[in-house]
Amino acid sequence: MCEIKRTIKYKNWIITFLVLAALIISCRITGFSMTVLTKRGNRFTEFVLKMFPADLAYGGKVMQPLISTIQMSVAGTLIGAGIALLTSFLSAGNVCESRALRLLIKLVVQAVRTIPVLIIALIATFAFGIGTFAGTFALALYTWAILTRIGSEDIETLSMGAFEALTVTGCGKVKAFIRTLFVDMLPGYLTNALYLLETNVRHASILGYVGAGGIGLLLNEKIAWREYEKVGTILIALFFAVIIVEGFSWLFARILEGNVKKNWLRTAGKRALWILLGVVSIWSVCSIERPDSSALGMKVVRSIMDGIVHPDWNYFFSNGKDGVTWLLLETVCIAVAGTLLGAVIAAVLSFLGSKRFMPWPVAGFFRVIVMAIRTVPVLIYGIMFLRVTGPGSFAGVLTLAVTSIGLIAKRFTVSIDRMDMSAWNAYSAMGVNVIGRIKYCLIPELFPQFASAVFYRFDVNIRGASILGLVGAGGIGAPLITYMNQYRWDAVGAILLGLFALVLVIELVSAWVRRA
């Protein structure tokens, strides 16, 4: 037992050393500089002051694009989640006997998860034309990939007793799955789908940059015209939309988890929410524009597919700073530095926003701040930080640091609020000071959840860093967008192949760290 503890301790020290080394190297490669932040940080504030106070009279023109954004998000989430139910079943190792089918689905899921939603939307506009159908398609594909992976992992952790008992009696696997495993996995699956709905609202707000509909079209237009007070109006509208979606998700999750005390309220509330969800889903799906496919568009799509399966190998193996290898390294460094810097700030905000350690008014204030941070699209932060650092990787680091705060702080705050306080109270009763309670109580219990949130955000930031080149914030996104605009699909294929390999390696490393 002592030998096992010693091994785990050494492994943890090795992981800590590697993380610190990765942070130092990443800051060096990306040009991170506190001196630049100190001297030019006020330019970020100046940009914010241009947006606020906002032009509230412009609010009426924001409503229809905002509604379209929500409709795209709901429809994309609904369609993707519905299809993912089937593919989760087909890719679960304890249910589906066909190993070839499971590997095929997981390979496709991994490939789709590699491509940023913005890039999927851009490709969809070639296939289906400009409009909300392309945006909905991109969100549905993204949702399908995420929920297929999460759903299959959840199914593989479920008890198989009832399922096997039904199949032994002659019940078909699909019917047995619906009556047993499906019932067990549904609450968690819906919770994850609702979380993705919140994420998709923010994704949908930038899809207009590539013509995929929603409020992003308006946002891109007002930024191009430098009408920043109207940009502020759009961000305020997005903030209230996020509040409404998160409030609905929170209420639905509480009812699904049985956290409503009164039975009649839980029953009535569940029925009302299901009816509301059904009405909003039908309204959203019916509102999506029909695709406007053309022979030219389909020809472009075939060229894209041909380029992706026949990548430019010379570009892929190029050793220069304009080659795939160096650009991927730069992208990783942007994601590493941005994620870790954001995680430090998020940890502080999580405790300040927890009702376990702060009075409710204080906790509520900081939760609103975190929600406001999550509201602003990633490309807006990129534009704002370019004013501080100029074009390059440093702007990308600051952008991902701020966007990481929102997600990590939210997930970590939930973990803190659900923490069993008995050990903390026991240490307090014994006279242990705050530092001791943090060391022996908080860190052992909360670190796994915090590490999980950080790793998840890092995975997201790899793809986020790959689109920051759209605004000149470094990484592999700049050549990716450039080659797509030049129809150099073989070069695009080389970049996507590199991203696929990178994400796969990161997942293997993450799995090893989680087992530590």
Question: How would you characterize the overall build of this protein?
Answer:
With 516 residues, the chain is mainly α. It folds into two domains: 62-287, MetI-like (MetI-like fold), CATH 1.10.3720; 319-514, MetI-like fold (Orthogonal Bundle), CATH 1.10.3720.10. Helix content is 80%, strand content 0%. The chain has 23 helices and no strands. α1 (2-30) packs across α16 (324-352), α3 crosses α12 and α3 crosses α18. The chain is globular and about 60 Å long. It starts with a helix and ends with a helix. The mean pLDDT is 84.
> Share of helix among residues?
over 70%
The overall strand count is 0
Low-pLDDT runs of 5+ residues are none
CATH class of the largest domain: Mainly Alpha
| CATH superfamily placement of the largest domain | MetI-like
Q: Which outline best applies?
A: globular
Give the terminus-to-terminus CA distance: 16 Å
Order of helices and strands: HHHHHHHHHHHHHHHHHHHHHHH
Indicate the radius of gyration in whole angstroms: 24 Å
Proportion of beta-strand residues? under 5%
Task: State mean pLDDT (0 to 100 scale).
Answer: 84
Supply the CATH architecture of the largest domain. Orthogonal Bundle
Total separate domains = 2
- CATH fold descriptor of the largest domain: MetI-like fold
SS field, number of helical segments: 23
Q: Strand count, sense and closure of the main sheet?
A: none
Quick summary:
The protein has about 525 residues and is an all-alpha fold.
